[in-house]
Amino acid sequence: MKARLGPDTSNPDFSPFWEGCKEQRLLVPSCRHEHLNWPPRPVCQTCFEWNDKWVEIAGRGSLYSWTVVHKTRLQSHLAETPYVVGVVELRGTPPVRMVGRCEIDPAAAMFGLELVVDFHRVSPDLTLPFWRPANPARASAQAPAQAPAQATP
Ligand SMILES: [Zn+2]
Ligand 1 centroid vs 112 CA: distance in angstroms? Predict the structure, then answer.
């Protein structure tokens, strides 16, 4: 049996989320009071009623926590090291925190860094939400305070 990397998109608890990603939408479970619940669960963590629908949330958030992966045993990820895996806090009630790859300079990772979702189609069955800086100029560790003037030829 061939080892499979990636999430099980057929898991019924998560499949609406993965279907939403294919449509470039972030969907999370919600109860009738519009409380957001992540990770998915049958009962709302706030009011203890059933989560009976999936709602779309904005793909904007901020870096809440992170780790920098310097070494990996995954051959498919070796060329990408070092890379950042972060917990991204999305606005909502209560706030949703999702774990995902962050396309940021590891040295520029900081609490509160504004991020936006960027969907990566890995295969016909899998699209992953990655996170990139909302303001790329602020997310570079080596970014000069002011860009030097360039001479025009
Ligand atoms: Zn609720």
Answer: 27
Q: d(Cα 79, Cα 72) in Å, to the nearest integer?
A: 10
Question: Which residues surround the ion ligand 1 when the cut-off is CB under 5 Å?
Answer: 31, 33, 35, 44, 46-47
Sole residue written with tokens 């030097």 = 148
pLDDT in tens, 59-98: 999 999 999 999 999 888 889 999 999 999 998 888 999 9
Range of the domain at 58: 15-137
pTM exceeds cut of 0.85: no
**Which helix (H) or strand (E) segment is 60 a member of?**
strand 60-69
CB 31 within 8 A of CB 50: yes
Question: What distance in angstroms lies between residue 34's CA and the mean position of ligand 1's atoms?
Answer: 6
* pLDDT tens, residue by residue, 31-52: 999 999 999 999 999 999 999 9
Strand pairing partners for 102? 84, 131
- In a domain, residue 84? The reply is yes
Kindly give the distance from the C-alpha atom of residue 14 to the centroid of ligand 1, in angstroms, as a whole number.
18
Q: How many folded domains does the chain comprise?
A: 1
